[in-house]
Amino acid sequence: MILEDSQRIKLKETLETLEHPLVIQASLKNDSQDKEMRIFLNELAQMSAKITLEETDLSRTPAFRIGQEGKEARVEFAGLPLGHEFDSFLMALCQVDGQLLEVSESIRSRFLKIDRKIHFETYVSLTCRKCPKIVQTLNYLAIVEPNISHTMIEGKQFYKERMSKNVFAVPTVFIDGKEVTNGAKTMEQLLDCALGINNIDDFLAKGIFDVLVIGGGPAGNSATIYAARKGLSVGMIAESYGGKVMDISGVENVIGIPYIEGPKLMNEIEIHVNQYSVDIMNNQRATAIHKRENLLEVTLENTAILKAKTVIFAVGVTWKKLYVPGEEELFTKGVTYCPHCDGPLFNGKNVAIIGGGNQAIEGALDLANKVSHVYVLDRASSFKADEVLIQRASKCPNITFVLEADVTEIYGHNRVEGLTYLNLKTQQQHSVQVEGIFIQIGLMPNTHWLTETEIKLNAKGEFVIDECGMTNLQGVFAAGDCTNARYKQIVLSMASGATAALGAFDYLIRQ
Hints:
511 residues; eight-stranded mixed sheet; 25 strands; 29% helix; alpha/beta
């Protein structure tokens, strides 16, 4: 079998939990391209009497659907679900079998609004750590809601199809053939995309929170847990649950956990925070804050206004941008920020990495194993990365260093075709033809929308806080990487969130 021993053990354990007979409908040709899937499915059927394999014609080949015997199959995998998607396949077996978790009232209310057939398609990379959650969520929806169906599409296997749709970042979700969203999304977000709604009604009946946390990363969740344990009424706004931790391949410095993948860590944290009575508002972006007498009012992007006695900002950081022509227009069309997630989509192509730190050089080394050639461009006269990384990259025949290069434009029609840069030494313009551009020039706090407020930010845009986590504005606290704390680490963000929550509690009991 093409599975590793550990995967085979997990598959055997999953198959032993099945209570109902499942039918796998496979669309296969008798050629080398489909050989691996045929081997995979035949051995799967041999491992359990509850699995029946049937051949059929689907819109893509190789592909297969999973369904309970005698019922419509609405979960489909186009391409082998290996890599990080192997867990999605195992979960799909359990989901189709009927091993399902209960959904929230807000999800059920959205189901009632579905009055037509909706077909989701998700383009993934098997190395992407964000993709499985989207795939598993949409598979779940396809099983519990008869009007929904879902197909996972492995981007490398269906390269020509992906290119024809200009998909250069994962996960990218289509609904009924139209691209609607990309990146990490919650179940509510995906349903709202399908329904075309911006649900403000859910916010009209909310009362006044003792603590309103803005941010869904380690700091925000820590603050939420600590505030809830104090018996306070707590709300949490999370634009993208998990924050930048979702992009981390491996975390090895959380005390007591020798190793864990970033998304798995945030999944454990989510389970923890859900043990408390907390109003978690996913898929929401705060756009403004005002102080009205003794209350703080936070305006959301959907125009809803939330009121709280205290607010804790844990908004984290985001990738720095070049702010050059073409960067915004071609984002997800070749311009991206994650070599690990999106690198496989550029297999055999020429790409560029912009930046000179450890992240940039590590990204170049990762990409060198997949792409034809990597150009590493940096404005400085020497790289800031560790010397051992620079030496390793310099020995790769398909990595080219371009120093003193100021990128001035990213160009292309519907997709990236190349970039131009100014040689700062000669003042001459040059062009490099590439199909992918990975921007790795650092991170900045998500505070740009607060620059005109009373809240004090330093020159880097970070919140200036005291030993209790409070900003200069009474009742407003901040925690994590968005603050002026010198060191930025997951464990320090968690500690900072706890400090801010305790500071908020101390503030409240003295009012």
